[in-house]
Amino acid sequence: MLERAATMHEQTLSAWIRMVLVEAAELELLQIHASSCEDMKVEKPTAHAGEEITLKLDGALITPEDFKKAVHAFIELLLTVTEEISKGGKRPLWNMSVREGGAILVARAVPDVETRKTARGARKEVKSTVAKIERGKFDFAELAPRTLSAVRELASLPAKLNHEGISKVTIGTGEGKAAPLTTKTADFLKKNLGAQRSAHGSIEGKLSVISERGTFQFVVFDSLADRGINCFVPEVKFREADDAFGERVSVFGLIQYDRENRPLSIKVESIRAFKNLYELPPIEAFLGVLKSA
Q1: Exposed e or buried b for every residue in 34-51, given b needs 16+ CB within 10 A?
Q2: I need a surface site. Which of 50, 160, 166, 253 has the fewest CB within 10 A?
Q3: Nearest to 269 by CA among 254, 247, 249
Q4: CA distance 253 to 176
Q5: Residue-wise pLDDT tens digits, 244-265
Q6: β-bridge mates for residue 180, sequence order
Q7: pLDDT in tens, 109-156
């Protein structure tokens, strides 16, 4: 009875896979890695480091509904990033397959000299974008709403604690560690996606955690909110930020706010470091000015 149920589940899941990939293939940016839709190829695990982008779902129970949602979101993420990387040029055609030994969806670009660089860039950008969003080190204004929505869908897949379902969702390229997606990210994006407002303003606090990974950025611990605000700065201003490391600063620029009107991030236009207490004139100097007045 259990074997029959498992077989029916696998058949249903395979049907969903075929249907979803056929829908995606209609976008003409994907092709099915199979001789026909009824005989979709399931490949054996092999080493293709740097040649592929994968979505891996772990868990004792992966329902057809969850798998369909995962495939749709993964393809949406891949195609959106590919479109942005190509910048209006020729886009790679992605070849889709399912890897044996688990729920692993594999995308490889069809060999093409004209799109090889774009495909490589898209693979890396998908993984790095997922990692940045999961760490909270990203600027809402610099990511397409479609990208954020797709990541939110993927991050919402893991089941709640002590519930059956998907236990882990990861995006990999065969190079380095795979990038995980957790429900923490899904909750954050659900709360803030499409609900931000932006306005120019200033944030004051202590400048710390400078990074050059992917984008030039640092964190200012807002003295009012008592939390770190991600600051994205143009490269020409990065030296200025580095010189102010550990100091209290005021950064001005375009601020993104959440539903509760709390700052999420700022695209920095100027940085002003406050003087340390020992650099300020003595109190007597101020008293002297007041007396002379």
Answers
A1: beeeeebeeeeeeeeeeb
A2: 160
A3: 254
A4: 35
A5: 888 888 899 888 887 777 788 8
A6: 170
A7: 999 999 999 999 999 999 999 998 998 878 777 788 889 889 999 999
Structure tokens, 104:
């692993």
Segments of the chain with pLDDT less than 50: 1-10, 12, 25-28, 32-40, 47-49, 286, 289-290
Taking a C-beta distance cutoff of 8 angstroms, is the pair 181, 130 a contact? Answer: yes
Q: Residue 145 and residue 161: Cα distance in Å, rounded? A: 29
* Whether the Cβ atoms of residue 109 and residue 93 lie closer than 8 Å to each other: yes
C-alpha span between 249 and 218 (Å, rounded): 12
Alpha carbons 185 and 132: distance in angstroms, whole number: 10
pLDDT value of residue 16? 53
150: its two tokens: 């797709």
Q: How would you write the chain as a 3-class SS string?
A: CHHHHHHHHHHHHHHHHHHHHHHHHCCCCEEECECCHHHECEECCCCCCCCEEEEEEECCCCCHHHHHHHHHHHHHHHHHHHHHHHCCCCCCCEEEEEECCCEEEEEEECCCCCCHHHHHHHHHHHHHHHHHHHHCCCCHHHCCHHHHHHHHHHHCCCCCCCCCCCCEEEEECCCCCCEEECHHHHHHHHHHCCCCEEEEEEEEEEEEEEECCCCCEEEEEECCCCEEEEEECCHHHHHHHHHCCCCEEEEEEEEEECCCCCEEEEEEEEEEECCCHHHCCCHHHHHHHHHHC
Q: 50 vs 32, 102, 198, CA distance in Å?
A: 21, 20, 38
